[in-house]
């Protein structure tokens, strides 16, 4: 089932499919948590359907195999783990699939999820196939943004950006799904992505986020105790919590500069004000930079002593030059 925010892009694709004009290599760009794989698979299922050109009929042999995830002409390649690269061998496999004949005497679809995780060698290996794919072969690539994609890949694809709804609409949609009211803060912490926001609330991260911000604001007030509480809450939550702290400090910096609109933590303004009043701007700026670095580092190298690194980062608020006054 497609989500409401998929509809307009889907209709554009349907039109092109109906006219037989859909590009052989489609690149779908969208934020994490917007359900783009659902949309990409809907396209794949439609291309493969034996009865209909513009939507999957749901009853043909192809549609049934697709639903059972055993379609012999549908292939997916993605990183083995989030944040990892797609190996060049997996990309070479795509090239082999591309030249195979269809087992159902129809089209073949090759989907590359997180195409931005292709390394340079992988990207180079697929370029020729993307440029001139064998007939009856449809490529669907997905990625979060153009930033991390190699321009050579981008130039060979037909780009489509899935826009997420307005944040008030996201809020209303999540509230309807969960039958509870949520804060706009939850939407903003998840970059406006509806599914990510829903998961955030469902998994109780909204509550743990609140607890972390409380502990952090409390730690920054004399007598500066509770450093291990903050570190413990962060390492219990995982590296996402570093992003939360980063967003919170950016809000404090904005407030110090007189900007009070569009804060992520607009609903926790009192806490933002407290910390903005306690910690000098230069310290906040430096600490944001450091926690973002720490986030990148922990993302790449799992298994580091997160607690220790966080405590070290938190002491940065107490250093002699940084004295929290
Ligand atoms: Zn069908």
Automatic annotation (TrEMBL):
Residue ranges of the DNA polymerase III delta subunit C-terminal domain? Answer: 211-317
Q: Which SUPFAM superfamilies match?
A: P-loop containing nucleoside triphosphate hydrolases, post-AAA+ oligomerization domain-like
Q: Which InterPro entries match?
A: DNA_pol3_clamp-load_cplx_C, DNA_pol_HolB, DNA_pol_III_delta_C, DNA_Rep/Repair_Clamp_Loader, P-loop_NTPase
Query: Which GO MF terms are attached to this record?
Result: 3'-5' exonuclease activity; DNA binding; DNA-directed DNA polymerase activity
Q: Reaction catalysed?
A: DNA(n) + a 2'-deoxyribonucleoside 5'-triphosphate = DNA(n+1) + diphosphate
Q: Which GO terms describe its biological process?
A: DNA-templated DNA replication
Kindly name one Pfam family recorded for this protein: DNA_pol3_delta2
Task: Please verify whether the record's keywords include Methyltransferase.
Answer: no
Alphabetically ordered keywords of this record? DNA replication, DNA-directed DNA polymerase, Nucleotidyltransferase, Transferase
Coiled-coil regions, chain positions? none
Q: What is its EC number?
A: 2.7.7.7
Gene Ontology cellular-component annotations: DNA polymerase III complex
NCBIfam families assigned: holB
Name-wise, this protein is DNA polymerase III subunit delta'
Q: From which source organism is this entry?
A: Photobacterium lipolyticum
């Amino acid at each position: 089932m497609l989500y409401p925010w998929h509809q307009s892009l889907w209709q554009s694709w349907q039109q092109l499919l109906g006219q037989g004009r859909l590009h052989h290599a489609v690149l779908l760009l969208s934020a994490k948590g917007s359900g783009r794989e659902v949309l990409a698979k809907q396209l794949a299922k439609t291309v493969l359907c034996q009865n209909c050109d513009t939507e999957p009929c749901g009853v043909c042999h192809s549609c049934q195999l697709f639903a059972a995830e055993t379609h012999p002409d549908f292939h997916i390649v993605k990183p083995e783990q989030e944040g990892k690269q797609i190996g060049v061998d997996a990309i070479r496999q795509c090239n082999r699939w591309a030249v195979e004949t269809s087992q159902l005497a129809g089209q073949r679809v090759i989907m590359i999820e997180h195409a931005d995780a292709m390394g340079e060698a992988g990207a180079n290996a697929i370029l020729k196939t993307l440029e001139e794919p064998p007939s009856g072969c449809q490529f669907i690539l997905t990625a979060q943004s153009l930033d991390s994609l190699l321009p050579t890949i981008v130039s060979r694809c037909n780009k489509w950006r899935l826009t997420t709804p307005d944040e008030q609409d996201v809020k209303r949609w999540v509230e309807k799904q969960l039958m509870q009211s949520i804060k706009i803060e939850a939407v903003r912490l998840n970059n406006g992505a509806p599914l990510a926001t829903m998961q955030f609330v469902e998994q109780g991260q909204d509550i743990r986020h609140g607890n972390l911000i409380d502990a952090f604001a409390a730690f920054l007030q004399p007598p500066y105790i509770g450093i291990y509480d903050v570190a413990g809450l962060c390492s219990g939550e995982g590296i996402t919590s570093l992003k939360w702290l980063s967003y919170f400090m950016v809000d404090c910096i904005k407030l110090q500069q007189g900007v009070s609109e569009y804060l992520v933590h607009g609903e926790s303004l009192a806490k933002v004000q407290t910390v903005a009043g306690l910690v000098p701007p230069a310290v906040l700026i430096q600490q944001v930079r450091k926690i973002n670095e720490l986030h990148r580092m922990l993302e790449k190298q799992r298994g580091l002593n997160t607690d220790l690194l966080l405590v070290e980062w938190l002491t940065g608020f107490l250093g002699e030059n940084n004295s929290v006054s």
